[in-house]
Amino acid sequence: MADDAAAPEGELSESTTEADSEAIEEDAIEEDAIEEEAIEESEPVAEAPPGRRISADRLPLVIGLAVVVVLAGLVGWLGFRAYQSHQADEQRKLFLQVGRQGALNLTTIDFQQADTDVQRILDGATGQFYDDFSQRSQPFVDVVKRAQSKSVGTVTEAGLESQSGEGAQVLVAVTVKTSNAGAAQQEPRAWRMRLSVQKVGDEAKVSNVEFVP
Predict the structure, then answer these.
(1) SS3 127
(2) What is the pTM of this model?
(3) What's the angle, vertex CA 104, arms to CA 187 and CA 128, rounded to 5?
(4) What domains sit in the chain, N to C, each tagged with a CATH number?
(5) CA angle, residues 93, 97, 98, in degrees to nearest 5
């Protein structure tokens, strides 16, 4: 009877031991899970890649360089425009000067130096005007010398009538005083001339002349 009574206690002890083992295992699993969560929470936050941080640090420098490039381009463009304006102004002055001088050359002839005066006209001529005047230059010199003519021109007004590329038309108002041998000095005469001026290399020359009312 005693043996029979002891058996249940042994069985109870074995079941109790098994339950305790399962509880221990569950506790161990929970502890591992808690440790893993703690490790995950304790991991440092990943920093931004070094490349991105450097780019952010250099952003003001990049902006500054971009501003410098834009300003340099603007200054260059303004400088080029100023150069073009200066060149155009110099070309207008050249055309006007050549037109004025051409009118003076044509109206200032002294029989004592007629050959030199005519050559000065040819030196400042080009194109069709040069061809025409060079053919008539010798008869013109002969007439001036025979009449002992002397004329002096004075420009009273001059201006650019039009300009296109390498050429321009210049209007010139001239007062001319003329004298001949054996004749009384004539009254000054007012002439208006339209001279076509053409760029030839670095200089400009008269390419056509016409008198206008």
Answers:
(1) helix
(2) 0.63
(3) 120
(4) 98-211 (3.10.450.50)
(5) 120
